[in-house]
Amino acid sequence: MHFYIGAHETIEANIMAVFGFQLCFTLIMASFMQKLTPIYSFGRWLMCNGSLVRYKHPTDEELKKLAGKPSDKSNNKARNRRHNYSDQKNSTTFKVSKKLEITLDAQPVHVIDTIILRNYTDYEWLVNYTLFSIFVYIGTEIYYEIWHPTKEFNISMVWILLSMWFAVKNLCSVLVLYAKAKAGGEISMSITYGMFSFIVALGTLMIKEDVLEFGIEAYINDNITSTNSTVPEQRHFSISGIKLLLATCSSFLGILFAFPALRMAQMYVDALRYSKGNAFTQFLLHLNFFAPAAIALMWIKPIVRDLIRDPRIGLGRSEDVSPMLTDSQFEIMRILFIICICFLRLALLRIHLQAYLNIAYEKMMKLRKESGMITNIELQKIITRVFYYLGVVAVQYLSPLVLVMCSVMCLKTMGGYSWLAFSADYKDNVMNLTTATVQNNEASSNQLLSDSTLQDMVHTVGGNLYSIRAIFTPVLLRGVFSYIVWWSSFNWTVASSLGLLYHSYLID
């Protein structure tokens, strides 16, 4: 028993020698998430805390009473004995006038109501996992800023990248849902917008860095510098290949963002209508809707960086005036701005979901203006279907938000930025990170021998993970994630603006 405990402690110590605080913190958060989620779920609280109200469809008895039809409640037992199941189904279907004065009962959304929701588990898992990923990221960032560990693989990036994967996976599941429902209009619209996104992305990547700054040209300069230096030869990616891959990813995101952005535009228009008289709420709704456009503008150098960072532009570039912000400080401020926008969108989630749930009442009012008859089953489906797809709408709202937030976190960490950029003695040495990484890997590369200990093996594995930075350099990752954040915001802005025009001018 003592031998087992001693061996276990030795293995744990060897692993901690490589990962240290990160591995311990990650295991604690994973265990905490597993134990806490069944008891308390942040995603469940967002939707089921009583602030959202859904509309219940009228029952058959209520419809018969309003239509003046005789109730056959007393004859149900005799009918069940005389008829088979198909006869019972036909007997419960009847027609009523569309102009019936039907009053829909409203009740708060409770946890028990979410059992029937489509894609609710995907929504809850996305929210809960992303929340814990942010906690792991914050703890790891504090660790890196205080202790400045060297040659350690940042495990929080695994959590963040998985959150991005779950967001993309949920958007794909929604697209498959529309495909299975044979909603040809939505699918054809998404594919058309994806092709349009591919063409626009190719044109965007051809713009010079002086206008639209992603940092891809800096990767070219980094390649030239590292090639001419004494550092051993490294593997570099083709710039044309990187741009083609980014354009392909842009097309894919265009397909995924098309219909969710249109849904967002509809909820925005409805939320504005329901918040008349509340100027502050309407201001937040406007800010939330046009925030992706503001994020996209942050990468247009003549509009933002040159005006905010350097006050000499408005003073004729006099040499006696120092810049207001350094490049590193501007990058951190841009990252913080995007994170604040993401939290704003999360705070307005319930307002948009309530605007969506109110569609049931709007459909009922619209039905009264039509003439003719409708069956009780069809009328009840019109009301029930709105609440049934509440989970899908929540996924459509949150998945782009999670994708942008996680991308900007990857931009900060993988791009080599620091939260200490506002300190007086901070210097951005991202250009030296690749050289230092390769030199450290060459100096510490030890081959595993037959008599190598477990500590040597773990140390070698950790060094190999860290050596990925020699291929995916911080300069390259800055350009890639800057483009992902910019394109996600720009694409969402264009698609939601088209949806706003459609819902404001093309339909009643």
Automatic annotation (TrEMBL):
<feature type="region of interest" description="Disordered">
    <location>
        <begin position="65"/>
        <end position="92"/>
    </location>
</feature>
<dbReference type="InterPro" id="IPR019395">
    <property type="entry name" value="Transmembrane_161A/B"/>
</dbReference>
<feature type="transmembrane region" description="Helical">
    <location>
        <begin position="13"/>
        <end position="32"/>
    </location>
</feature>
<feature type="transmembrane region" description="Helical">
    <location>
        <begin position="332"/>
        <end position="359"/>
    </location>
</feature>
<protein>
    <recommendedName>
        <fullName>Transmembrane protein 161B</fullName>
    </recommendedName>
</protein>
<feature type="transmembrane region" description="Helical">
    <location>
        <begin position="484"/>
        <end position="502"/>
    </location>
</feature>
<dbReference type="Pfam" id="PF10268">
    <property type="entry name" value="Tmemb_161AB"/>
</dbReference>
<feature type="transmembrane region" description="Helical">
    <location>
        <begin position="242"/>
        <end position="262"/>
    </location>
</feature>
<keyword id="KW-1133">Transmembrane helix</keyword>
<keyword id="KW-0812">Transmembrane</keyword>
<keyword id="KW-0325">Glycoprotein</keyword>
<comment type="similarity">
    <text>Belongs to the TMEM161 family.</text>
</comment>
<feature type="transmembrane region" description="Helical">
    <location>
        <begin position="386"/>
        <end position="411"/>
    </location>
</feature>
<keyword id="KW-0472">Membrane</keyword>
<feature type="transmembrane region" description="Helical">
    <location>
        <begin position="125"/>
        <end position="144"/>
    </location>
</feature>
<feature type="transmembrane region" description="Helical">
    <location>
        <begin position="283"/>
        <end position="300"/>
    </location>
</feature>
<feature type="transmembrane region" description="Helical">
    <location>
        <begin position="156"/>
        <end position="178"/>
    </location>
</feature>
<feature type="compositionally biased region" description="Basic and acidic residues">
    <location>
        <begin position="65"/>
        <end position="75"/>
    </location>
</feature>
<feature type="transmembrane region" description="Helical">
    <location>
        <begin position="190"/>
        <end position="207"/>
    </location>
</feature>
